[in-house]
Design a protein that fits this description.
0% strand, globular
Length: 135
């Protein structure tokens, strides 16, 4: 991605803001028990945070699958993020696709509620990484 450094910082900030705004929707979706919508929003909050991470480090984002692959290549294989975090991100992408595109599949409460806190922690870790890069 060919961005001036000032523009890169703006894009990173906007992507993180988007990630946090989307994650903020989780409480409302839990209240109305829209579990498939919650899976979608959790994944997209991660996608925007990972996009911020990739842009921060001058990497292309590309497709959703490309973002997952680049995350694994640049952050999991290098030990910046754990294998478990990489697997979680991949699982959330798969869960979102399954729930969005398979009309007979519905995400259950027991399947999605335990993923809320790990998503929050993942986003926070990305925020800390980006903040440390800005120092």
């Amino acid at each position: 991605m060919s961005l001036k450094e000032e523009d890169r910082k703006i894009v990173v900030a906007l992507e993180m803001e988007k990630a946090e705004q989307i994650f903020a929707e989780t409480d409302m979706l839990c209240q109305v028990k829209f579990w498939s919508n919650l899976a979608n929003r959790l994944y997209y909050s991660l996608f925007h945070a990972v996009t911020a991470l990739l842009v921060c480090d001058h990497h292309e984002v590309g497709t959703h699958r490309g973002a997952v692959n680049r995350f694994h290549m640049y952050y999991v294989k290098t030990g910046i993020f754990t294998v478990e975090e990489g697997a979680f991100y991949s699982q959330m992408q798969s869960l979102r696709e399954e729930s969005d595109y398979n009309c007979i599949y519905n995400v259950t409460e027991s399947e999605i509620i335990p993923r809320i806190e790990p998503t929050r922690q993942f986003i926070e870790k990305i925020k800390r990484y980006i903040a440390d890069k800005d120092k």
